[in-house]
Specification:
4 strands, elongated, alpha+beta, about 140 residues, 3 helices
Length: about 140
């Protein structure tokens, strides 16, 4: 049976529980058609690169699917009809990766570091900054 990685974006104003209900709905659809859903990763509420249907953020979810093409096509058809799903994309892959995705590894790395983006730690003394290499201004001596 073909293997797929499927990512979908849900509107920002739906709750995390509603996103889980969407996942369960689509999971039931796939399993009803003879497929299976392996790993499901919720990447959380993230900013979009550009506005989609007046939304600046979306709930991202990744699903690993083993199913016939007809089941995936039906799931995509229903996602297209749903007002809660902004975008979706399905990739056919040669093998499914059961390890955490790059998005989850990044989140784990940020959690271990403590603080995330703004925390750069102790950067030490920057030393004497006088005598820089700025070019002389007009009227100044070199």
């Amino acid at each position: 049976m073909p293997l797929y990685e499927h990512v979908f974006l849900a509107r920002q104003d739906v709750s995390a529980q509603q996103v889980e209900q969407l996942v369960e709905q689509y999971k039931g659809l796939i399993e009803g058609a003879g497929g299976t859903v392996g790993k499901v990763e919720n990447w959380g509420l993230r900013s979009l690169a550009y506005r989609i249907k007046k939304n600046r953020k979306a709930h991202y979810t990744l699903m690993n699917i083993t199913a016939p093409h007809a089941a995936v096509a039906e799931m995509e058809r229903q996602m297209g009809l749903s007002e809660d799903v902004l975008r979706y994309m399905t990739f056919r892959v040669d093998e499914l990766d059961e390890e955490p995705s790059a998005m989850m590894q990044k989140r784990d790395r940020d959690d271990r570091r403590g603080g995330g983006r703004g925390d750069r730690g102790d950067r030490g003394d920057r030393g004497d900054r006088s005598g820089g290499s700025r070019p002389p201004r007009r009227g100044e001596e070199e």
